[in-house]
Each structure stands twice: as structure tokens, then as C-alpha cells.
Amino acid sequence: MSGRTPHRDRGRRRKDGDQRPAGGGGPRAIGNVVSGLMARFGYDREQAASQLESAWQEVVPEMLRSGSRAGLVRRGVLEVVVTHSALAQEMGFHKREVVTRLQQLVPSEGITDIRCRVGTLS
What we know:
The chain is an alpha+beta fold. The chain has a domain at 43-118: 2-Layer Sandwich (GMP Synthetase, Chain A, domain 3), CATH 3.30.300.180. Helices cover 44% and strands 16% of the residues. The protein has 4 helices and 3 strands, in the order αααββαβ. Helix 4 links the parallel strand 2 and strand 3 (113-118). Helix 2 (43-59) packs across helix 4 (85-105).
């Protein structure tokens, strides 16, 4: 034998970052299991998107609600879809106030700016 132990993967990291040996190990905390499942099936992203959409409807001025929809947040910038360019221009007048309110309502999103894009609302 070359000095190796019979259990070669003992103590190595698995792909999911867990340091326990692959193939079982001991019991896991239920919170870790549930959060892992939520992340795996995308429920956490879906829930975050739902929270953002409801916050958007609360903070955006009434004249812009029906013609705009909050999209994805990338590097702190919330992409907003508006139905026409006049709404994008109007959003520019309310941007600072809307960003401040969104930071209060959904701080986990880390929104620092808004960028409008003309498109269709789905």
C-alpha cells in the first residue's frame, strides 16, 4: 500500500461546500435543509421577485403604475420596463425618491439606481 487510507474522500469538500464525508454523515439542521431546497428549486428568487414587485407598486407614483413593471436587479441597478418613452422620462423625475423608498422596503435587493427600458409588460 502507498500509505493512503481506505476512505479516500474522508474530510474532503463536497461540491455543495459541506465538509462532511460524501454519502451521508450525520444529521443536518432542518433550516439548512429547507434553505438548500428553496435555493435549489428557485423559490427564494421567486419570493424576492414577488416582494420587489409589491414594493414597486407601493412606491411608484400612481401615474406610472399601470405602465411600468420592476424587473431584475443587476449590480444594484433595477431594470424597469415601461410601455413608452414618455414614462421613462417621467420616471427620471421621480427616480431618487423611488430608489430611497425601495431601499427602505427591500434592503436585501441592494438597489442604488433605476434604469428604464421601453418594452411590453407581461
